Amino acid sequence: AGGMGVFDPGINALSIATHILPPFFLTGATLSVPENRQAPIAADLHFTDAAGTPIQAVFDWRQTGPQTWDITVETDKGVLMLSKGGSEMRVDGTVVTLPPEAEYDGIYARFVELIRSGRSDVDVSPLRHVADAFMLGRRTLVDAFD
User: Which residue in 23, 43, 53, 20 sits closest to 128, CA to CA?
Assistant: First the structure.
């Protein structure tokens, strides 16, 4: 019990995907759950949008070696790749210079603004995709994870 397993970090990728892509929905999922745990250690998610565009997300804690965190968006205009936790961006293989990392400063400034104004700002789209994966996904048992 407790936690969302591989979706704890995976929700960040889903947050970016739901922000930059047209609305999409889950069509299938396989959740790999260790025999000694309740939450998945890996997830293979398949989505589509209204135009039938295939979208896939793969999260896996069992990866060895250097960890990857990549989002690749292939369009008729070219390929966008976000990597290294979103700190590196390439368009058609060319590195795009990004401003210095200021994500957390911006988040905390937004928190202050929301608290002072008594408002909230929540995007439930990424959580909806995780909930759909838990409800609709096929659960497969895998080796114990310690």
Answer: 23
What does pTM read for this prediction?
0.81
Burial of 12 (0-12, 13-18, 19+ CB in 10 A): middle
All domains of the chain, ordered by start, with CATH?
Answer: 7-142 (3.30.360.10)
CA–CA separation, 69 and 91 (whole Å): 16
Are 122 and 14 a contacting pair, CB within 8 Å? no
Is 19 a residue whose pLDDT tops 70?
yes
pLDDT tens-digit readout, 29-55? 999 999 999 999 999 999 999 999 999
Q: How far apart are the C-alpha atoms of 134 and 31, rounded to whole Å?
A: 8
Name residue 32's amino acid: S
In single-letter form, the type of residue at position 83 comes to S
Cβ neighbours of 13 (radius 10 Å)? 20
